[in-house]
Amino acid sequence: MKSPSGRRRKARAPRPTAPPKIVGLAALLVVASLVAGYLALTRSDNTAPTASSGTGGGTTKGSAGVNREELEWDGKTKVIGDGSTSYTGPQPGQLKAVPLKPGEKPPQFVVFSWDGALAGDDELFQHYRKMAKEYDAHMTFFLTGIYLLPKSKRDLYSPPQHSKGAAAISYPTDEHIRTTLEELGKAWKDGNEIGTHFNGHFCGAKGGGDWSVEEWKSEIDQFYELVENWKTNTGLKDMAPLPFDFRKEVTGGRAPCLEGQANLLKAAKGYGWRYDASSPGAFQVWPTKKNGMWDFPLQLIPYDGGDYQGLSMDFNFLANQSDGQPDGDPSRYAEWQQETADAYMAGFNRVYYGSRAPLFIGNHFEQWNGGTYMKAVDEVIKNVCTKKDVKCVSFKELSDWMDVQKPATLQALRTLDPAQGPDWSTLVK
Q1: What are residue 31's phi and psi, to 5 degrees?
Q2: Separation CA 372–CA 353 (nearest Å)
Q3: In this structure, which of 95, 171, 192, 357 has its CB flanked by the most CB atoms within 10 Å?
Q4: In the chain, what is the greatest distance between 2 CA atoms, to the nearest angstrom?
Q5: Closest to 103 measured CA to CA, from 67, 65, 66
Q6: Across the chain, how many H-helices and E-strands are there?
Q7: How far apart are CA 426 and CA 410, in angstroms?
Q8: Which CATH superfamily is domain 25-39+75-427 in?
């Protein structure tokens, strides 16, 4: 892929034994402070589509041993704590996971995930929640804890290795807190997952990569404290409780800047989490577990027909197309949008017609380079979530499916090169 200066940042195509260098990873870290700090963005040029088909409404049968089942419930709500959260029964519309039958081809899973999950002026949270409904998709929204904390109460947050109230991102406005709460509730009812992006978004020196296991535990505990006590902290007594219990529903997260996974995994094990999405630059291969949790990494996807590889996240494209500047040359926006969409589709096609390994695409609610990366993701959602055998799911749902597969089946799937289309009749036994 060419940088704005015309130089190519090379990385070899993936091979099972020699991971390629990540395109733009250094630049990715340079722009890490941008992760979710844009709280007052202008609205996207894209208009949110009208929802036409959701995931609820009875049971709809999918392919390759996958159903979406609308769960029944007796209607007894249990309000928790100060009324910030509640239990309203099992989450509706979740994927029903069953083992593959002998000779059965796996579904093509695609996970779209969003770091920060703030419902800001751009209304991108609303936009992607509605897109998910329209295209029968579920997504993972990684909430940042301080996005439910007013700036006036910032001293309630004590980040590891930093002073009280410090954060590498901006605190939200009161109105953004209200709209974020509204969208979190609606997203969960639609079948989407709410995970964690932790709190202060510290990277580099004194960030997650420098934190001890105990410091990570403190960050996790404070995430729960912030989201379970938003009503007390904000004074928004007129709002209904969120319709879910964070202690039960949060089963994984993504570390800011993808830093500190080793100690994070040790810390997270005591919380009953089932996966982590903090690994950078892995092959498009069937996942394994680390420290007892599924490891769902951002992936290396092909540019220029596979000669170059880049991370499957908007930061990677920003770093390589405009050197990490969020307002690059407007004359190149259309080119960059197509380049981004093509890379995502190349990653999808490689596994869809090959190993069927899950595809992970991570992004932020942002308007970098005129909304280039959001428009590219819109295009990909429309293209892939409508294809035969494709299941656009959350990380939580993928964990469910992985957990019920036979170990021998998963081991056989992991032997495949991403582009290798095997004889499924003999591979899955």
Answers
A1: -95, 15
A2: 27
A3: 192
A4: 62
A5: 65
A6: 13, 15
A7: 14
A8: Glycoside hydrolase/deacetylase (3.20.20.370)
Picking from 392, 363, 346, the residue whose alpha carbon sits closest to that of residue 108 is: 392
- Give the number of other CB atoms < 10 A from CB of residue 60: 14
H helices present in 353-422, as ranges: 368-384, 395-403, 407-414
Calpha distance 39→212 (Å, rounded): 30
First to last CA, the chain: 40
Q: Over the chain, what is the mean pLDDT?
A: 85
With H, G, I as helix, E, B as strand and everything else as coil, classify residue 380: helix
pLDDT of residue 67: 40
Mean per-residue pLDDT, 73-100: 91
Tell me if 250 sits within 8 A of 194, measured CB to CB: yes
User: Residue ranges of the domains in the chain?
Assistant: 25-39+75-427
For residue 36, what are its two tokens?
């979710």
Q: Assign residue 218 a region (left: φ > 0; alpha: ψ between -120 and 50; beta: otherwise).
A: alpha
| Encoded amino acid at 267, one letter | A
Q: d(Cα 278, Cα 208) in Å, to the nearest integer?
A: 11
- Nearest CA to 106 out of 420, 411, 428 is that of 428
Residue 142 scores a pLDDT above 90: yes
Round to whole Å and give the CA distance between 151 and 165: 8
CA neighbor of 344 nearest in space, from 370, 318, 383? 383
Burial category of 401 from C-beta neighbours within 10 Å (exposed 0-12, middle 13-18, buried 19 and up): buried
d(CA 187, CA 182): 9
Q: Hey, what amino acid is at 172?
A: P
- How many CB atoms lie under 10 A from the CB of residue 350? 22
- Could you report the per-residue pLDDT of 257-301, keeping only the tens digit for each? 999 999 999 999 889 999 999 998 788 999 999 999 999 999 999
Sheet with 275-276, edge to edge strand ranges: 275-276, 293-295, 289-290
Assess contact for 229 and 82: CB atoms under 8 A.
yes
Measured in residues, the chain has a length of 429
Strands 66-69 and 300-303: unpaired
**Is 150 in a helix, a strand, or coil?**
coil
| Top-confidence residue, 315 or 43 | 315
